[in-house]
Amino acid sequence: MDTTPTDSLAPPAPAGKTVTRAGDRVFLGLSRGSGILLLVIMAAIAVFLTVRTISAVSQDHGNFLTTFEWNADNTPPVFGIAVLAYGTVVSSVIAMVIALPVSIGIALFISHYAPRRVASPLAYVVDLLAAVPSIVYGLWGALYLVPHMQGLTAWLDQYLGWTVVFKQSAPGTAARSLFTVGILLAIMIIPIITNVSREVFRQVPRAHEEAALALGATRWEVVRMSVLPFARSGIVSASMLGLGRALGETMAVATVLSSSPVLTAHILDPAGGTFAQNIASHFGEATDFGRDALIASGLVLFVITLLVNGAARMIIARRKEYSGAAA
């Protein structure tokens, strides 16, 4: 009796061709089309920003990078790229230095330390914080955070003023500085980094943690040797999401920061500005040339964001082989 399966009697597929269902082909086409559409949109944005930037630079009689105050055709003051880049980068770095360790600590507490009856409500609160509008954070920062920052800024000026960074030129003034903005941005991006990191920590194979516990490792040693190495690329991705929010934040920064066309190393002084805040503050009353100048600053922010995300992808690619993410 012949027991050969009927499937083995079917003619083989032609070499170099894969037999797929109609649904697979449709999904492949939609996925490919979505990727191409995304590239087209990004290219269109880049072309638009570049064209308007060329128009602004061709009419500018100052230096595009270092001019601190850009006036033309009765346009309101528009800060130069150097001042805006400095304010954007410094405030974002301050936010990341504060938010990253706090977010990782909260995510580890929720995923590995807190009992379920505590972890679930805490995770729910973090999710709610991520959904709070920017303007609400801005109003809270202007009405509550700024008045309560004066004591901290005075302490930093007294004991760390010798570092120049924490030197305050006019003690006692309102703390509407890049340092205050950085703290506000840190509060805003902590829920984003925490949520992504928490989900990454939950993806760590249970066998890795059980093996470490079986070898006599403590809870912290399990986290240090099993959880963090596996989640390293995910933490970088979460950090880049938070950094992108910090770089592009508008209304909260505009509400808190007392900007001025001054480039200084004193982060406690009201000085500097950010790209997004400057665009939002001056776009409505700017002339055609002023709008082109603001769009030019938007192009610089666009390039900075692309460079940051590109660097993050390179870090993730290099670290992936050392973590369990590729397994």
UniProtKB/TrEMBL annotation:
- Domain of life, per UniProt, equals Bacteria
Domain ABC transmembrane type-1 positions: 85-312
Q: Where are the transmembrane segments?
A: 35-58, 78-110, 122-146, 177-196, 293-312
In its keyword annotation, does this UniProt entry include tRNA processing? no
State where the protein is found. Answer: Cell membrane
Q: What is its main location?
A: membrane
Q: Which Gene3D superfamilies match?
A: MetI-like
What's the protein's topology in the membrane?
Answer: Multi-pass membrane protein
Q: Which Pfam families match?
A: BPD_transp_1
Q: What does this protein do?
A: Part of the binding-protein-dependent transport system for phosphate; probably responsible for the translocation of the substrate across the membrane.
**NCBIfam families listed in its UniProt record:** phosphate_pstC
Q: Which family does it belong to?
A: Belongs to the binding-protein-dependent transport system permease family. CysTW subfamily.
Name the record gives this protein: Phosphate transport system permease protein
Which organism does this record belong to?
Streptantibioticus parmotrematis
